[in-house]
Amino acid sequence: MKNSERLFLYMAIALILSVGLVKTEDEEQSHSTSVAGMEKLLQLEAKFIASLSEYANEMEKKLNVVRGALVQMQAESDKAINQTEYYLSNPLNAFSLIRRMHQDWIDWKIYMEEPIGWSHVAFIEKHKAELPNQADLQEACLAMQRLKDVYNLKVMDMATGLLNGKQYNTSLSALDTYELGQYFHKHQKYQVARDWFNATSTWLMNHTLFTPIAADQANMLYMFAAALVKIKYYSIARPILNLAMKLGNGKLDAVLLKLDADIERLSRDEPYIIPETETITSFYQTGCRGLFKSQLKFHCQYKFGPSSFLRLAPLKVELVLLDPFIVVYYDVLSPLEITELQTYARPLLRRSAVYKAGKNIFQTARTSKGTWIYKDHSNLTINIARRLEDMTDLTLEGSEGMHILNYGLGGHYFSHYDYFNISTEIDPESQKNERVATVLFYFTEVEQGGGTVFPKLQQIFNPQPGMAVFWYNLHDDGTPNNKTLHGACPVLVGSKWVMTQWIKLYPQIFTRPCRKRHTF
Ligand code: PD2
Ligand code: ZN
Questions:
Q1: pTM for this one?
Q2: What is the pLDDT of residue 342?
């Protein structure tokens, strides 16, 4: 297949598959949902690069053989062509010509036909199933959209590595921005799509793309321009086409001129795109942007009891709020403990699900990977479970295990409640599963984003290694406290690791029975 055909096919497939594919069905895929999960991809890419480099060496070796032979052949041919009769009248020359033409060119044909580096081609083929699929790419696009919306980022800033005012030594290529342009176009966000296509155009004016589809630069630029004309972004297509014309390509002249004429004719009808204005900013967004006014007065103290363990090693605790009751613990996990938990979890991480109508389903509202670790797993987990009981004055009896999570590209957990809100009348059995409280441990600091936000309380907690937030999800009488609505802000830069312990209501019956609701 020619490069141009391949690019068209590539664009057409992207166009068909990207519509509505925001949900990843395959648990094992969803590459972008955890940083730890993406590490495997980076290692595979390093192997691909080594393999491609070997492939290049093999091509170079072959090229050297051809170039070396050409020097000799050309010298002989020049000598012969200049004095044909004289050359052929020499028996040595005549014999050599006959032999060469009988043998050498067939050998060259075989040599030219020999595939170069087929083992490297086979290497890619073998690992094809490990590569992100179309759904992964769509999910990554959605994550970029989430980051843009929640943090109100500008497209050009994102494209050039300026994230929330901090310049990073990285940027997106034309292929990256073009993909995002297509994604936003398909989701009818035309102004944003235009911005991404403009970023593509700017990039192409200033860089050279080195990928198979850009092997013929003029042709690649023509394909970009043609694709943009198809979706009516004439004014962005024009400079790209002009560059294609400047680079020139004899075979393409006619099609370039035709496209130029099309743009000339059609550009008068370029659709007017209404500039995007930000839709109403939610409290969730305001919180994630770090714009809550800090109105609460915190009280720090040591928790010395009730256990003898706490008398020896009190924990640093800070009261945040009484309704719902929220406290923050500092340095409750040591760096060594965190490393041990991460080492355990890393190979076991699987796409996180959301519990809905009795089923676990994968949803874009929650993008992370997680795994469970149970109290009786090791001395470490036994210790942490005892610490949790000391921190909360609740029993872990009958509770779920601890859930370790790692977030990936734009990883988040949209506003939700940790309680199930199952009324005793509807299902007394399920009500036993109700979660009275949550403890959320942070393993890592997150460079940008990734806070835990309580929109109704205008409160945000930014991850610090070893810190834990503990809150009650229910009122004193066991009914849901809807002020506990909370979410995990998208991670903008960083790898966020947390561990959650949801604590069940029923087992507290003897130590902390339900009381009349307390009003503050
Ligand atoms: O990771 C978080 O910050 C977070 C926020 C809200 C986790 C959860 N909820 C959860 O796992 O329930
Ligand atoms: Zn939660």
A1: 0.87
A2: 98
